[in-house]
Amino acid sequence: LLKYHSLCRKPLLTSLVPASMFAPPSRGCGEDGGPECFEDGEALNGEAGDHGVDFSSKLALVSPNGEQYDSLLRQLRERMDEGCGETIYVVGVGSDGGDYGLNESDMEASVATVQSLCEQIEADLILLRERTESGGQVRDYLIRRRVGEADFLEVRVAVVGNVDAGKSTLLGVLTHGELDNGRGFARQKLFRHKHEMESGRTSSVGNDILGFDQEGQVVNKPDSHGGSLDWTKICEKSSKVITFIDLAGHEKYLKTTVFGMTGHLPDFCMLMVGSNAGIVGMTKEHLGLALALNVPVFVVVTKIDMCPANILQETLKLLQRLLKSPGCRKIPVLVQNKDDVIVTASNFSSERMCPIFQISNVTGENMDLLKMFLNLLSSRTSFKDDEPAEFQIDDTYSVPGVGTVVSGTTLRGLIRLNDTMLLGPDPLGAFISIAVKSIHRKRMPVKEVRGGQTASFALKKIKRSSIRKGMVMVSPRLNPQASWEFEAEILVLHHPTTISPRYQAMVHCGSIRQTATILTMNRDCLRTGDKATVHFRFIKTPEYLHTDQRLVFREGRTKAVGTITKVSVTNKGLCRAGYRNSVPKSLVLSRSVSLSTLRCLLLIQAVSRPCCLSISLTRCLLQTHSVSPSLFLTLCLTNSSCLSLTRAVFHSHCLTNSPCVSLALSH
């Protein structure tokens, strides 16, 4: 049998082995060998001897006194906080891993103690499995914190893989509860566009949900009239919701896939591999992207009903070799039964173990194992409500009767209804004050959202054209500043030639997707496998950044990955944006720039360099924007010839009669 610490430190596996060969599960083994990762003499359900409790005995839960009970309660609270509201508890095992099993009376007393502890922290106790060892009974329980009526635990899973691997089909089967017919029946329910239905290929980022109740049962039930899912009913019945981010597999849509992986902040990544096709196309590219972003990966091998046995075994061997390669350093584990699911889910947060599921969307084989695994997954990051709020925008909408709506992910903090936030940065790097009119979470109205949750906000008094992907909504306490330039430590994954200063490529950082130029770096040139500190500059608009953010630097396929180490804050003003001399025509024609911003820009120009606004540019401005009297007076200040300006004004036919306008024209 393998030592348990080998999972955390040394990839000693030489072949695919069933997870049942491993020692009993422990929650979240970490690289640092923390309290959750035990070796000989360390604790299974906690630290050995912690708070005066002897966890080395399997009878620690049978009849604890008052002090021991308080210690057990503190230890359980710590584990629940580490697991973001969930943990797996093993009853009947000593901390040394060798003392197994309880008799019936001791087991009942231990379970009663755990049930009492759960009531103290308002959590539910769910039996996962019961097994009989030589010394007696051993039970595994899932402890999940109870949530309110309008609240639920949320875990985001990105679905990636090569085209035709069965990503959308699997999500259709999971979320709608109906098996596929082998000819695209299940995936048709998920597509958003007509061309996707015709070609069968996903081209946009799709979102689907799978709800679990307190007992771990799936609550998704499609509407009998049309087969659509009612997200509100699912969320009301669920204590935990898995959000699937359905990404495109075709190389043509790689930038959309990269945006989904960086902008939607998935907790886990589900890599799909067609058993008949094997590891082809974009499979390695998507796996490398997940590894670069430090997202734990589990693999689902599909179409096992139509694949010959020898081809399936060959695919598994290639997959094993890829996962164990120096670039991945994963431990592949073949999941075959419920015991394997519990063990792999308990240790999956270590980011080293990689479960492999073999399923069929037509026959439904092993689908129950995958659902059980998804139910046991817990969020990897904990958040505090007292932090300043930060929300990144990944999409915008204009809803009739509601107004402008933005969707995205809450990075930290707590956002409540009617809160005042700062929205930005705009093309000039400024942030504007905005009020939250309403909040929806999974199409269900709520009063607040917390860190790690996805939501949609209806905003007051702002046009959709003024908002773009990559902008943020932050608390005024953060005093946000936009940045044109930043430094990052990058690793070049692949580049056919060399990378040198003035090289341009697309930067993906969170929901930001913009081309950047390399200004300087601490090496003359970069080749495949090189590391360097690089100074970047955005070419279009400033962005809101902070240190330790992960980024992907690509041109076509992924070229480099890295972490932001330094952010150069932009001074408030226009000189940093490059508007020292004149107003660019592209800025005038852009409807994303508000009239107030244009007025400010023109007035500054009138002071710094009068008479530089051309008549052709004036005509563009008048034809693009509705002109108010104040903007007209601003134009008069910045033009040298009132006669030419008058011709342009009357040519546009967009001014109303106003004493202010008449006075300016007569002058």
TrEMBL record:
Primary location recorded for the protein, binned into one broad class: cytoplasm
GO CC term, one of those recorded: cytoplasm
Keywords from the named record: Cytoplasm, GTP-binding, Nucleotide-binding
Family annotation (InterPro entries): EF-Tu_GTPase, EFTu-like_2, GTPBP1-like, P-loop_NTPase, T_Tr_GTP-bd_dom, Transl_B-barrel_sf, Transl_elong_EF1A/Init_IF2_C
This protein's record includes keyword Signal: no
Top-level taxon: Eukaryota
GO molecular function: GTP binding; GTPase activity; translation elongation factor activity
Function: Promotes degradation of target mRNA species. Plays a role in the regulation of circadian mRNA stability. Binds GTP and has GTPase activity.
Protein name, UniProt field: GTP-binding protein 1
Species annotation: Astyanax mexicanus
Source lineage: Eukaryota, Metazoa, Chordata, Craniata, Vertebrata
